[in-house]
């Protein structure tokens, strides 16, 4: 009798009982196991859909932050033209020297908490700080020699290539086909902009060549500090501490340059206003947004998205500075737009978010 009771109970409690029988007590024939869908399968589907939606929203937020950063950065070259007596070294040292130190000031509590991790990754911090110090000197010198549009295009169009190489060689992270296509479109747009005819610029052949060379230096240093900041965040360093250490260190390195070359920046109200704007808005606010974006998208994606900067710079050069862009240049601009569209509409890759990796690393360190 006990055995029959157990058999009867099992027939009602097993996976084969229908939902109607479970609710009302009616016994129905069991479905074959092969076509029975577990009740939790629908919940899993919903969770997977919610996860994918959340990942896409996170990615879009990061893309938006990087594009806003690029738009702010695109104003720096045009702003610098309003301080013609200040040299490019002074402008560059003021821009990231002051902006970098401000990054460190607002990150002091986070820097204290992350001191152990930062000492552990001191080489990455030093690499990033050195790159931050070199970048504005090369970038503003490139624009001074080759023109606002060409200098910014070369600097920013080369950065995705160097960033991708860093991730491929150092992090062993393969580059996706969509990223390669986006970078190719952006670089092609940059090349067309370089060969476009810009009227109203006072550059010559040797100066342009020197400007292009310095633009490549700016591109590799930009990629280097982007990689360093993301590497620190991936190792468990909070975003504010990672950005504060890298940019604060770079700001300190730029202070001697600013002291030597910065006198023209305080010689007139206009020059002082230009230096203040570049340091506070594109550099300080821009890099806060850039640091946020780096927690949501890979450095290679971030540097590709900042290809919007030379497009903004070229438009401002035409509208405000008075440079006139030829048809070839406008084709290059359209290629930039296509690159950004291709990259921003890509589905989110199956790469763990850097903020999640940071939380995991911190828990391990605390444990």
Short overview:
The protein has 367 residues and is an all-alpha fold.
List keywords for this structure.
367 residues, mainly alpha, two-stranded antiparallel sheet, 17 helices, globular, disordered N terminus, disordered C terminus
Structural class: mainly alpha
Q: How much of the residues is beta strand, in percent?
A: under 5%
**Can you summarize the main beta sheet?**
2 strands, antiparallel
Low-confidence stretches: 3-25, 347-367
Cα-atom radius of gyration: 27 Å
Overall 3D geometry?
A: globular
The overall number of domains is: 1
Strand elements, count: 2
Which strand order do you get reading across the main beta sheet?
A: 1-2
Q: CA-to-CA gap between the ends?
A: 56 Å
The protein's oligomeric status is single chain
Give the count of helical stretches: 17
Q: Helical percent range?
A: over 70%
Mean pLDDT, all residues: 78
Order of helices and strands: HHHHHHHHHHEHHHHHEHH
Explain what this protein looks like in three dimensions.
The protein has 367 residues and is mostly helical. The protein has one domain. Helix content is 78%, strand content 1%. The protein has helices spanning 2-13, 19-24, 39-73, 76-80, 88-106, 108-113, 115-120, 122-146, 148-169, 177-195, 205-234, 239-261, 269-294, 299-305, 308-321, 327-344, 354-366, and strands at 198-199, 324-325. It has a two-stranded antiparallel sheet with strand order 1-2. Helix 8 crosses helix 12 (239-261) and helix 10 (177-195) packs antiparallel against helix 16 (327-344). The protein is globular and about 50 Å long. Residues 3-25 and 347-367 have low confidence and may be disordered.
């Amino acid at each position: 009798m006990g055995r029959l009771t157990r058999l009867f109970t099992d027939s009602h409690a097993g996976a084969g009982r229908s939902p109607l029988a479970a609710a009302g007590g009616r016994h129905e024939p069991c479905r074959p196991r092969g076509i029975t869908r577990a009740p939790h399968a629908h919940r899993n589907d919903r969770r997977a859909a919610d996860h994918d939606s959340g990942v896409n929203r996170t990615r879009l937020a990061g893309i938006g932050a990087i594009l806003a950063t690029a738009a702010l950065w695109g104003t720096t070259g045009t702003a610098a033209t309003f301080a013609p007596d200040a040299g490019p070294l002074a402008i560059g040292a003021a821009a990231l020297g002051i902006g970098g130190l401000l990054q460190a000031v607002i990150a002091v509590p986070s820097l204290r908490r992350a001191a152990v991790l930062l000492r552990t990754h001191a080489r990455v911090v030093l690499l990033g700080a050195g790159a931050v110090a070199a970048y504005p000197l090369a970038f503003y010198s490139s624009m001074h020699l080759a023109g606002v549009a060409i200098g910014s295009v070369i600097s920013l169009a080369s950065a995705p290539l160097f960033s991708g190489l860093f991730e491929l060689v150092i992090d062993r992270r393969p580059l996706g086909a969509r990223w390669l296509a986006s970078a190719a479109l952006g670089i092609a747009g940059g090349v067309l902009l370089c060969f476009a005819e810009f009227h109203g610029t006072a550059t010559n052949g040797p100066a342009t060549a020197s400007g292009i060379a310095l633009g490549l230096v700016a591109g590799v240093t930009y990629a280097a500090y982007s990689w360093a900041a993301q590497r620190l965040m991936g190792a468990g360093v909070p975003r504010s501490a990672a950005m504060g250490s890298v940019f604060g260190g770079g700001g300190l390195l730029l202070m001697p340059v600013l002291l030597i070359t910065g006198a023209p920046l305080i010689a007139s109200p206009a020059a002082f206003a230009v230096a203040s704007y570049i340091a506070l808005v594109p550099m300080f606010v821009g890099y806060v947004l850039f640091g946020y974006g780096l927690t949501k998208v890979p450095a290679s994606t971030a540097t590709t998205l900042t290809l919007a900067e030379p497009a903004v710079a070229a438009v401002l050069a035409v509208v405000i500075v008075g440079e006139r862009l030829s048809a070839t240049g406008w084709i290059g601009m359209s290629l930039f737009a296509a690159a950004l569209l291709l990259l921003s509409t890509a589905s989110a890759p199956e790469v763990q978010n850097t903020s999640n990796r940071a939380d995991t690393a911190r828990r391990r360190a605390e444990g």
